[in-house]
Amino acid sequence: MTGDEKVCVIIAAKNAQDTIGRAVRSALAEPEVVEVVVVDDGSDDKTMATAAAADDGTRRLDVIRFKANRGPSAARNHAIAVSRAPLIAILDADDFFFPGRFRRMLAVKGWDFIADNIAFMEKPDPLYPPADFSPRARPLDLKDFVLGNISRRGAPRGELGFLKPVMRRAFLDAHALRYREDMRLGEDYELYARALIAGARYTVIESCGYGAVVRANSLSGQHRTKDLETLFIAERQLLSAGNIPPQAESAMRHHCRQIGRRHALRHFLDRKRDGGAGAALAYALKNPSAIPAICGGVFRDKLDAAHRRVRPEKPAAQGGLRYLLKTD
Fold first, then answer.
1. What is the set of domains in the chain, with CATH numbers?
2. Where is the signal peptide, in residue numbers (predicted)?
């Protein structure tokens, strides 16, 4: 392993005492990892102590605590600031690495960002091996990345923003790239989009080294209307900068409109919850441009609920694992 192949794993954690130990141990088990930085983002449980207890004695683990919650972007930025390894890997506190992840990733050359497949599961088991997909490296450009985050009826949810890449610190520093600390939803998508706009060589391999645990109470499943609004504003700012490659601009505008429609619907539902049907109707009448999004969203929600009653989702195959990237 050369100096350029050394990895720092950064973990932002909030009230993660039940999972943080598994995450830390999986990172420390990878020989390419020379630093693991855990930032306890204002937890009120035993997250910090549990993370520290997972130390393997190799002096690679650093656990830092924020007294008040500042959000995952601030936690990750702080971890980047205090770490030194040339490669930065993101690990969520709920998740873990399968053995050999970085060995397969670092065998690929010529990238600024590299991501692998993700196995989604409801019951975590780091010892249950994922399918043995061939790595098969391919480039990911801005257009395909954005299109991979757009949801379409009858198709799997757009999820490429969930990718957990290894990032070169030199590229992040050269382009002053850090997470936007006002974002608590879509902060990964926004950072990767800015990196691609800046010319990042983003490579994706199909082999699976990341295990993601699906929880109904995860942060990504608890976003607020304000979080959608911030994501919508952030993407409009990217578009207004005027440096989007022409082949990707249409896709980004499509994604931005979709976020805008989701925000309008959530705002309408908030008004209905807080003030009743009358307040919701008044909001719609004052914002006529939002009416198509509201009507369409309500109709789709009811249609999806009816579809689930008639045809429940089939359980995931292959030991309960569902994979982010389509593979042959």
1. 3-217 (3.90.550.10), 225-310 (no CATH)
2. none
